[in-house]
Amino acid sequence: MKKIMFTGLLVSFFAMSTVYAHGPVRQKAEEEITINAPAIKVWGIINNYDDMSWLPGVKSTTANKGNSKGSVRVITLDNGGTITEELKKYDESSMSYSYKITDMSVAKTINHAGVDEKVPVLPVDNYAASIEVESKGDTSVVAWKAAYYRAYMNNNPPAEMNEEAANTAVTTLLKSGLTNLKMLAEK
Amino acid sequence: MLKTNAVVFGLLLLAASTFVRANALAVVTNQLSESVSLIDTDSRQVIATIPVPGKPAGVAVTPDGKRCFISTPEAEGFAVIDLMQRKLVQTVNVGPGALGIAVSPDGHKLFVADWYHNSVAVLDTHEFKRLTTINVGESPSGLAISPNNRWLYVANRMSDSVSKIDLADYHVTKTVSVGKHPFGITLDSSGLKLYTANVQSDDVTVLDATTMAVLATVKVNLLPYAATLALNDSRLFVTNQDDGSVSVIDTDTLKEIALLNVGDKPEGIDTHPNDRSVYVANWFDGTVSVVDAKQLKVIDTIKTGEGSRAFGRFITTH
């Protein structure tokens, strides 16, 4: 019995020290905005994968293969942080594209449970998103959706890397992007 | 015997007509709203929404259609739902990473994969006593049991492999490499072929379920999650999470013959007992798409709850 308990402890120890991709529960965020401008005009602002200048806080964007599937863009933020994203799907006819974060720079390092944890610029993991412009006569509706996990993949996350931190950061990002897009398109 | 059953049935009908049903139910877990939606597959309406705490994810229905088991990772176990009374009747603790869940075709054994402990717990379905714990590969997820109740197959997600277990003595007879990060697995009705949906390599591995030889690898779409068979095992339907679609594969030619748009982030998928309607849980949209396997089109979309996953075999046989 003792032996079994000891083995159990060892197993728990290994499980905790390994990073799992899907232990926590996947989260989602979705924001929509109605813009008083034709869809074609709105799509024209966001349709270049290598141009994220419409998103507040972005300094520059580069992409290696333009709007082709697999194109990798690096978004450099005003604060120097970077987010790398791969284009997964691009559909001109439905005015939409999907992408996935493949890498991010570290915003800060915190100590949690005796271990140094790197908090990425967007405190999420395994982030996939899509943006779509829908035509509604003279106006348009833009929907920006994201699915992701919290940044901390083990049990008992620190406050900087829990679900709330992830949800707040993503929702803020989507909202500020859409609000600014509306402003640009309605100008 | 039949006569007796008919009498009993009649009495039950009189006693509690609301608890009697003849239609197959689809049991859909809504992970973010922490509930389970019961869909009557005749009317295609949600007839009950049952609160289930613990971020419900996986589903296993009993062969008699009277109960189902819902894995609850954050409650470290599973919940038992009485499908006649339509309520949660019991919760059972298993381990910290309870996710994949399945019942043997004879209805006697329940299997719960533990994502964190790299094992599968085997329990009896009456008192939920643990019969044994089988060590498998890393982060076991999808489970499948052969129709003769002899073999258990486990997808080891982080080990990129599938283990075959002999349920006569609970030992792992073989572990073979498949695509990257296998998640959902499905076995054909004769128990001869096994299909694994590989999340990271965007493909499906086809295995000989007897020898565990890899027969083929079929490319599907972005982030395949789970699969189900329909029309006499002739068609395999695979959910592609990040593509919002279902790939339809001809199991003879192993070619993708159609790509159907469903809701956003489709996850769990299962086939109705009519062998023709395929139900797909759309995680992002909180809906279920119903696909007609013959016409190859979506014939209905049903609103369920937030974060519909329905991972496992979630439709009762009657």
Description:
The complex is a heterodimer of chains A (187) and B (318). Chain A is of the alpha+beta class. Helix content of chain A is 26%, strand content 42%. In chain A, the strands form two sheets. Chain A has a seven-stranded antiparallel beta sheet with strand order 1-9-8-5-4-3-2. Chain B is globular, with a radius of gyration of 18 Å. With 318 residues, chain B is mainly β. The model of chain B is unreliable at 6-19 (pLDDT under 50). In chain B, the strands form seven sheets. Chain B has a five-stranded mixed beta sheet, with no helix packed on it. Chain B has one helix and 28 strands. The two termini of chain B are 20 Å apart. The chains are: A alpha+beta (187), B mainly beta (318). At the A-B interface, helix 1 and strand 1 of A face loops of B.
Specify which chain pair forms the largest interface: A-B, 23 and 25 residues
Please state the second-level CATH architecture of chain B: 7 Propeller
Strand residue content of chain A: 35-45%
Strand order of the largest sheet of chain B: 7-6-5-4-28
Mean pLDDT of chain A: 89
Strand order of the largest sheet of chain A: 1-9-8-5-4-3-2
Please tally the helical runs of chain B, counting DSSP H or I stretches of 4 or more residues: 1
Distance between the termini of chain A: 74 Å
Name the poorly predicted regions of chain B: 6-19
Note the run of SSEs of chain B as H and E. HEEEEEEEEEEEEEEEEEEEEEEEEEEEE
Number of DSSP E strands of chain A:
9
Kindly report the name of the CATH homologous superfamily of chain A.
START domain
How big is the Rg of chain A? 20 Å
Write down the CATH topology of chain B.
Answer: Methylamine Dehydrogenase, Chain H
- Please summarize the sheet with the most strands of chain A: 7 strands, antiparallel
Structural class of chain A: alpha+beta
Mean pLDDT of chain B: 93
